[in-house]
Amino acid sequence: MRGRRIGYAVIAAALAATIIGVSLVFLIPRLSPAATRFSDADFGIERTTSAADADHDGIEDYWDFWLGAQAEAERHPRYDGAYLTSNGGRPDPATGVCTDLIWRAFRDAGYDLPAMINADIAAHPADYPRVAGAPDPLIDFRRVPNLHVFLTKYALSLPTAIDGAEFDPADWQAGDIVTLGPGGDRLTHTGILGPDRDTQGLPWMAHNGGQRELYDDDLRAWRIVGHFRFDAARVPDAVLRLWPH
């Protein structure tokens, strides 16, 4: 009788191991982020490159924007939008918000985006919805609506449709900037697209909304208000600023 119980226990253990093994076969691909990532090659997309290399590092601007956004996502600064009176209103590397990820990516590519936005606001304050009264260069460049206006004026505006016949994955490239909102035309968030794509070909996004991972496939959760590709040749000399070396 004892031997029979041992035999039953062995059979039960083997059956449980088999069930667990089969379950893992089906679950692991669903649980692994790598399993849901696709590349340009998977969709036959040729990556668009920039003719510019502002920081002369041998990496063209669009890929440099992505690399800067990726570095910010990996640093994972604590989300903090406090108004700052030092360092030109720019937070230290340990903290930041969504717009800080954008200007830091531009900085890594050789551009001083806060100085460019502030220069254009100073020259054309009426163009910017989040400038009340006198411009404030300590905070204006960190407001998503102001970033949206600047990019609308000086970057290449691209399609915003992410499904249906109007959606073409080739329109969406690493280094593109998106301005986002929860609905309507409200603007509350921004991010930079990466080289990974979801099952339909929409890129993943580097963005800082205080979430656990700063690079993810969350773009479909937002209303996409603006989709831009920055080209320094479109920016007037009076506005263009390079990051000081």
UniProtKB/TrEMBL annotation:
Keywords: Membrane, Transmembrane, Transmembrane helix. The chain crosses the membrane at residues 6-28. The keyword Membrane applies. InterPro entries: DUF1287. It comes from the Bacteria. This is DUF1287 domain-containing protein. It comes from Bowdeniella nasicola.
